Amino acid sequence: MYFDLSKIEGFEWDSGNLEHIKKHDVGYKECEEVFLNKPLLISRDEVHSEIENRFQVLGLTNGGRLIFLAFTIRDNKIRVVSARDQNKKETKRLQKEGGENF
Q: What total of structural domains would you count in the chain?
């Protein structure tokens, strides 16, 4: 799926989503780094897109940590809904589809 990040103006952080990612020992800076590194796989989350469009990301932090993110777009800002380490299946997908960038 093609996703145009050029229209994104930043990130939306508040106590709600910061608390949630902290439970999974992921920092907000790590979440932001994922969008700046390759490979970056973004797909629409069909299951959780009833109220607003939700997306899923597989990517890497600057330190090489393999991260899964769920997010939505609000007012041209990325709002991370969930963040955690990738599971084995997700890592294999990133390796396969990320190609030479992995």
A: 1
48-61 per-position pLDDT tens digit? 667 778 999 999 99
16 close to 44: Cβ distance less than 8 angstroms: no
DSSP code of 4? -
| Tokens 């109220």 -> residue | 51
Residue 26 belongs to domain spanning: 5-101
Q: With a threshold of 0.90, does the pTM exceed it? A: no
Q: How far apart are CA 9 and CA 21, in angstroms?
A: 21
* Amino acid (one-letter) located at 11: F
Distance, in Å, from the CA atom of 51 to the CA atom of 81, rounded to the nearest integer, reads 14
Please state the separation of Cα 20 from the chain's center in Å. 14
Q: Which residues pair with 60 in a beta bridge?
A: 66
pLDDT at 18 over 80: yes
